[in-house]
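Reminder to self: tokens first, then the designed residues, so the page reads top to bottom the way the pipeline ran.
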């Protein structure tokens, strides 16, 4: 039993727990009661710029990030040149800030799936939740796997016990504090990683059993063969573009006070992600030429760390190449840091499940408080799934890659279409979903022991591994994008051409909209104007047959929704008001929305008024 490491673990765990509970208490003192979804999921949209930058950076810089980077640098079969995840995820933050952060925050969504639910309907949104959930679970599994490996080195516990205990601690403060606890523990996490890793670098590099990393550059730099270039680019694009459609990212974006702030924290966090990978690379390089037989580590094979122990490279360097007091700080800080990273992904997955799956599909009458309790129960389920993956998956870096795969192939093209393709609809979304999934699965995946159904050019196969050198992930993503746009355009033109064709609308995506002048316009049923601030005044008259008659509405179509021209947004919770239109038996309903700069009270809620006059009262 390594007593200094055990003491460090206890101290830093207590620090994270105390910060988490303090943040939960602080949120309640500030008026965040925890009974509304925005308060718990988005911290009341009140995350400041500095805390936002820290929590956005810490979103990516966790256990899988630092341990996986060191592992890949040390691995003689890959090396530094194949360690593209830090650069890829940093680039994803820049791309996300340029094209998605402002738009999502301006539209006032609560989760990443809200625009899908708004444009494609509840059931299609539930289908899109599957790859989003898998991505978050894989990501959390990578974090917990790294933490289990670290604890195994420090206190000599088996990985299963380490993972379960650590996950329970991380879930505890997330359960009560929501995003407030997650954000403030992320600040502590980033500080711990920075201090814990950088303080160990000088000692590891000057140890008597090590040689200069510059003299061993050829050992840990790695190489990319020309024949592997398409595969290399494919993985880089997957990490860059596949790192965008994540609830854990958009949760930070949507919790920002303004849309401009959401962009700024994305850009600054990208620099932070790249900088925080440097110490892990140096540690992996030191381990690559270290004489491990000269230490107390007795599990070497031919003088090097065996393949099944490569994910322990970072904690092994901290323990065996550094003084006790440095190992105390480094191992304890890294363990606390990777523990606090898991809370973000668990909260993200639970938030989407409660708000976008359970509420609209299973329990439509659920109140805000009941949705919050569903989210809290889901935290345990997601945590259990991630624990299972962390225990049974061998490579941290491989798990890290898997978590972006389906997100890149399925969700990224859907996100582009839902925000930038005006005519995108459920038919195109479902078609693109099926095609993208089919193309990706038929390409095979060695990490899942899934053999390929189709062999692409330059296929690599040997007794121990196989992979497609052809950029199958990007190819599947492009196929999904093309099919989504093409099918959406065809079906949109088909149904808008003639109202008689609406009887073929099996997904009930379209409906007639009657104007006061008697003209008929066919619009997408799921493009709810309720999540946006509609130009005033807007009158909706419900005739006796249940059809809508829109008076004084601008006939221009918004480029995103295909509905009436709109400006800023409120939040998706107002969609419940729009559903009243379909059930009305007659009368006039006037819905007035104010723009985002009009606040009501200290909590910054949007003003809105709903006035209904029944025909019997006229």
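Designed residues (618 positions):
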């Amino acid at each position: 039993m390594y007593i200094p490491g055990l003491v460090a673990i206890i101290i830093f765990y207590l620090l994270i727990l105390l910060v988490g509970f303090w943040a939960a208490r602080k949120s309640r003192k500030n008026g965040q009661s925890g009974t509304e979804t925005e308060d718990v999921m988005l911290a009341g949209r009140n995350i400041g710029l500095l805390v936002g930058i820290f929590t956005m950076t810490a979103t990516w810089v966790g256990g899988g990030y630092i341990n996986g980077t060191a592992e890949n640098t040390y691995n003689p079969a890959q090396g530094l040149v194949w360690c593209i995840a830090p650069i890829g995820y940093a680039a994803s933050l820049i791309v996300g800030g340029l094209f998605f952060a402002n738009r999502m925050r301006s539209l006032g969504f609560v989760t990443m799936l809200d625009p899908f639910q708004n444009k494609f309907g509840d059931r299609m949104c539930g289908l899109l939740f599957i790859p989003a959930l898998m991505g978050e679970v894989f990501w959390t599994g990578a974090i917990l796997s790294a933490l289990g490996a670290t604890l195994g080195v420090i206190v000599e516990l088996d990985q299963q016990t380490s993972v379960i205990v650590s996950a329970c601690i991380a879930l505890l403060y997330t359960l009560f504090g929501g995003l407030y606890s997650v954000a403030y523990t992320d600040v502590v996490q980033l500080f711990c990683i920075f201090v814990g890793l950088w303080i160990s670098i000088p000692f590891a590099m000057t140890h008597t059993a090590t040689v200069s990393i510059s003299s061993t550059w050829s050992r840990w730099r790695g190489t990319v063969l020309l024949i592997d270039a398409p595969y290399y680019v494919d993985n880089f694009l997957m990490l860059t573009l596949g790192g965008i459609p994540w609830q854990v990212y958009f949760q930070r974006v949507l919790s920002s006070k303004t849309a401009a702030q959401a962009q700024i924290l994305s850009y600054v966090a990208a620099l932070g992600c790249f900088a925080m990978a440097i110490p892990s690379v140096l540690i992996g390089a030191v381990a690559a030429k270290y004489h491990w037989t000269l230490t107390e580590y007795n599990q070497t094979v031919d003088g090097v760390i065996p393949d099944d122990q490569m994910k322990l490279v970072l904690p092994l360097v901290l323990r065996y190449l550094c003084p006790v007091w440095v190992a105390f700080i480094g191992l304890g800080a890294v363990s606390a840091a990777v523990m606090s990273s898991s809370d973000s992904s668990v909260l993200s997955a639970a938030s989407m499940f409660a708000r976008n799956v359970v509420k609209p599909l299973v329990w439509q009458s659920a109140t805000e408080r009941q949705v919050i309790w569903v989210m809290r129960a889901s935290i345990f389920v997601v945590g259990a799934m991630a624990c299972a993956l962390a225990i049974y998956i061998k490579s941290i870096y491989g798990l890290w890659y898997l978590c972006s795969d389906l997100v890149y192939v399925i969700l990224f093209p859907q996100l582009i279409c839902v925000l930038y393709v005006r005519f995108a609809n459920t038919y195109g979304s479902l078609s693109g979903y099926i095609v993208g999934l089919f193309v990706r699965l038929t390409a095979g995946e060695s990490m899942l022991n899934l053999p390929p159904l189709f062999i692409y050019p330059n296929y690599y196969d040997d007794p121990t591994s196989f992979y497609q050198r052809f950029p199958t992930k990007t190819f599947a993503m492009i196929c999904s994008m093309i099919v989504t746009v093409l099918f959406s355009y065809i079906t949109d033109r088909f149904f808008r051409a003639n109202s008689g064709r609406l009887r073929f609308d099996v997904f009930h995506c379209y409906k007639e909209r009657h104007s006061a002048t008697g003209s008929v316009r066919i619009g997408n049923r799921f493009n709810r104007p309720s999540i946006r601030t509609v130009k005033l005044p807007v009158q909706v008259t419900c005739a006796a047959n249940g059809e809508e008659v829109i008076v004084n509405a601008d006939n221009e179509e918004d480029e995103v929704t295909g509905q009436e021209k709109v400006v800023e947004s409120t939040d998706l919770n107002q969609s419940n008001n729009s559903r009243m239109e379909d059930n009305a038996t007659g009368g006039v309903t006037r819905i007035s929305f104010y723009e985002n700069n009009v606040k009501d009270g200290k909590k910054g809620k949007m003003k809105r008024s709903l006035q209904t006059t029944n025909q019997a009262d006229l």
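The longest helix spans residues 159-198.
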